[in-house]
Specification:
Structural class: mainly alpha
Shape: globular
Largest sheet: none
Distance between the termini: 57 Å
Number of strands: 0
C-alpha cells in the first residue's frame, strides 16, 4: 500500500461521491448531468472543433518533421511487441465495443435524420456514410495518438514516470510534484473512469439486446447487472494474468472474431455495393474533411443541435478516453519511432474503421430501404441483431457479435485497470494487482450507476462533462512536447554535424 499515491485516494473519494449520488437520487443525477452537458455543448462547441482540428494538424506535422526519426526509447531499442500484436492491442482498447455498437446504427440514424439533406434520399445516404467516417476517422485517432506520443516520449526517452503530470514538466517545472500535478492526474483518472464506464455501459446494453433478440431474455437493469458482474469477473481474471498474457491474447482473439464477422457480412451482403460505397465515401470524406471539421452552423438551431448530439459528443468521447487509450498505447509502443508511431496509430485503425462502417452501414441502410423490416422500431442496442435476422446464418452472426462485444468489454476493462493502476501508483509499469482489481470494481460500478440513472443518455451526458477539463491538459501536453522536441532537434543537429577534420566527412 505504500506505493499508492494520493491520486488514488482522492480519485476514489470523488468517484464514491458520484456513486452515492447516482444511487440515492438517480433523477437528480440525470438532470444535473443533462444540464451540464447542454451548457458545455452550447457554449464550447466551437472550442472542441478547433481543438481537435489543431491536434490533427499537429500530428501530421510531426510525421513530416525531421523529429519523426526520434525513437521512443534508446536509439537502438527495438519494439517490445510485434506489429500485429501492437495493432491488435491499440485497436481493441481504442474502438472495440463502439464499432460493434454503432457499426450499423450510426449510418442508419444519419440516413433517417441527416445533418443537411432530405431524409431517405441518395444525398442523405452519402452524407450518412461520410459523417460516420468523419466521426470515427483521423480526428478520433489523432486525439489518442497525441496523448500516447507525449506519454511514451517522456516515459521511455526522458525517463519520467508514466504519469500525465510528468509530461508537463517543461511547462510547470517542479510544480508537477505538488498539488498541481496531483490535480492533473486526478482529472486524468476521473476522465478515464467515466470514459471507460460509458463504453462498458454501451457494451452491457448491447449484450442484453443481443440476448433479448436471440433468447427472449428481457431487457432490464437487473439483467445488465448480471452481465456486468459476469464480465467483471472475467476481466479481473485477465487483469490478474498480466499484460503479456491476458490483454495480448484477448486482443488477438478480438481481431480474429472481428475479421470473421466482417468477412461473413461482406460475403452475405451486397458486396459490390459495399465496395463502391466505401470508395465513394472515402473520396467524399477526403474532399469535405476541412468543412466538416469546422462546421458549427450557428444560424440554424436544428443543424446545430445535430452537431451537438453527434460531432461534439464524439469529440468529447475520444477526449475522455484519451488518458486511458493514450497511456495504454504508450505502454505497448516502446521502441518505435515518432513517425512510425503516428502513422500506425493514425492511419491503420482509421482505415479498418472505414471498412467496418462501409460494410455494416451499407447493409443497415439497404435493409431499411428494402422495406421488409423497419429498423427504427428497434432500440439502438437491438438494431444490429435485427439486421442479422434478414440474412442467412443469422443466429451464428448474432452469437459471434455477442461474443465479440464480450471480449472487447473484457479487453477494454482489463486495459483500463492497468492504466488506472499506473496513474495511481506513481507511474509503476506493473501496478499491484489489488489496485487493479479495485479500479475494475469501480469502473463497473460506475457503468451500472449510469445505466440505472438514465440509460444511454446519462452515459453521454457524463461523458461530455468529464472530457471538458481534460481537454485543457491535452493543450498543455502538446505545448510541452513541442518545447522538448524543439530542444532535442537542436541537440541532435549538433550531435550529427559532420566533423570537417575527420577523413571522408
Amino acid at each position: 500500500m505504500r506505493r499508492i499515491s494520493n491520486v488514488f485516494w482522492i480519485s476514489v473519494a470523488i468517484i464514491l461521491v458520484a456513486v452515492i449520488f447516482g444511487i440515492t437520487a438517480p433523477k437528480s443525477f440525470e438532470e444535473v448531468t443533462g444540464n451540464l452537458q447542454k451548457f458545455i455543448t452550447t457554449t464550447f462547441g466551437w472550442y472542441y472543433l478547433i481543438l481537435v482540428s489543431t491536434i490533427v494538424f499537429f500530428c501530421i506535422c510531426l510525421i513530416f518533421s525531421s523529429v519523426g526519426s526520434i525513437r521512443l526509447g534508446k536509439a537502438d531499442e527495438k519494439p517490445e511487441y510485434s506489429t500485429g500484436s501492437w495493432f491488435a492491442m491499440l485497436f481493441s482498447a481504442g474502438m472495440g465495443i463502439g464499432l460493434v455498437f454503432w457499426g450499423a446504427t450510426e449510418p442508419l440514424s444519419h440516413f433517417i435524420n441527416p445533418p443537411l439533406a432530405e431524409s431517405g434520399t441518395t444525398v442523405a445516404y452519402k452524407e450518412a456514410m461520410t459523417y460516420t467516417f468523419f466521426h470515427w476517422g483521423i480526428h478520433a485517432w489523432a486525439i489518442y495518438a497525441i496523448v500516447a506520443l507525449v506519454l511514451a516520449y517522456y516515459q521511455f526517452r526522458k525517463g519520467e514516470p508514466g504519469l500525465i503530470s510528468a509530461t508537463l514538466k517543461p511547462i510547470l517545472g517542479k510544480r508537477v510534484e505538488g498539488p498541481i500535478g496531483t490535480l492533473v492526474d486526478v482529472l486524468a483518472v476521473f476522465s478515464t473512469v467515466i470514459g471507460v464506464a460509458t463504453t462498458l455501459g454501451f457494451g452491457a446494453a448491447q449484450i442484453n439486446g443481443g440476448l433479448s433478440f436471440l433468447l427472449g431474455i428481457p431487457k432490464s437493469f437487473t439483467i445488465q447487472v448480471i452481465i456486468v458482474t459476469v464480465v467483471t469477473i472475467l476481466f479481473m481474471i485477465s487483469a490478474w494474468s498480466g499484460l503479456g498474457k491476458g490483454i495480448k491474447y484477448l486482443s488477438n482473439t478480438n481481431m480474429i472474431l472481428a475479421i470473421s464477422l466482417f468477412i461473413l457480412m461482406l460475403i452475405v451482403g451486397p458486396t459490390i455495393l459495399i465496395l463502391n460505397t466505401f470508395t465513394d465515401t472515402l473520396g467524399g470524406y477526403i474532399q469535405n474533411i476541412a468543412q466538416m471539421s469546422f462546421r458549427i452552423d450557428p444560424l440554424h438551431e436544428e443543424n446545430r443541435s445535430w452537431i451537438n448530439g453527434w460531432t461534439i459528443l464524439y469529440w468529447a468521447w475520444w477526449i475522455s478516453w484519451s488518458p486511458f487509450v493514450g497511456i495504454f498505447i504508450a505502454r505497448v509502443s516502446r521502441g518505435r519511432t515518432i513517425r512510425e508511431f503516428i502513422i500506425g496509430v493514425l492511419l491503420l485503425p482509421t482505415l479498418v474503421s472505414f471498412l467496418w462502417f462501409a460494410v455494416f452501414g451499407t447493409i443497415g441502410i439497404e435493409v431499411q430501404n428494402a422495406g421488409n423490416v423497419d429498423l427504427t422500431l428497434f432500440s439502438t442496442e437491438e438494431v444490429l441483431f435485427a439486421i442479422f435476422n434478414e440474412f442467412p446464418w443469422s443466429t451464428l452472426l448474432s452469437i459471434v457479435a455477442v461474443v465479440l462485444v464480450c471480449t472487447f468489454f473484457i479487453t477494454s476493462a482489463d486495459s483500463a485497470t492497468l492504466v488506472l493502476g499506473m496513474q495511481t501508483t506513481n507511474g509503476l509499469l506493473t501496478p499491484p494487482k489489488s489496485v487493479k482489481l479495485t479500479w475494475g470494481v469501480a469502473q463497473s460500478t460506475i457503468a451500472l450507476i449510469l445505466l440505472y440513472s438514465g440509460g444511454l443518455q446519462a452515459l453521454q451526458n457524463v461523458l461530455i462533462a468529464a472530457a471538458f477539463p481534460f481537454s485543457f491538459i491535452i493543450v498543455l501536453m502538446m505545448l510541452s512536447l513541442y518545447r522538448s522536441l524543439s530542444r532535442e532537434k537542436k541537440e541532435l543537429g549538433l550531435h550529427f554535424k559532420p566533423n570537417p577534420h575527420k577523413k571522408g566527412s
